[in-house]
Amino acid sequence: MASPSGVTVWLGSPNLKLEEKDEGGLEGEFFLPPVPAASKDP
């Protein structure tokens, strides 16, 4: 469920993406598979 959330934020505001990355760095993992995650939702 965190995958779609990250994708939404990434597409919504790049600023938030950078903030999340600094918080834990997990964003890097979600940033790698942004296409597959979005493809799974739709």
Describe the protein's topology:
Elements lengths: L1 H11 L1 H10 L3 H5 L2 H7 L2
Would you write up a description of this structure?
The chain has 42 residues and is an all-alpha fold. The chain has one domain (2-40). Helix content is 79%, strand content 0%. It is built from 4 helices and no strands. It has helices spanning 2-12, 14-23, 27-31, 34-40. It is globular, with a radius of gyration of 9 Å. The two termini are 14 Å apart. The model has no long low-confidence stretch (mean pLDDT 53).
Short note summarizing the structure:
With 42 residues, this protein is mostly helical. The protein contains four helices and no strands.
Fill in the keyword field for this structure.
42 residues, mainly alpha, 4 helices, 79% helix
Query: Rg, please?
Result: 9 Å
Termini gap: 14 Å
**Domain tally:** 1
What average pLDDT do the residues reach? 53
Percent of residues in β-strands: under 5%
Uncertain segments are none
N-to-C SSE series?
HHHH
Mass-distribution shape: globular
Q: Tell me the helix content.
A: over 70%
Q: What does the main sheet amount to?
A: none
The number of distinct helices, counting runs of at least 4 residues, comes to: 4
Please count the beta strands (DSSP E, at least 2 residues each).
0
Which structural class do the helices and strands define? mainly alpha
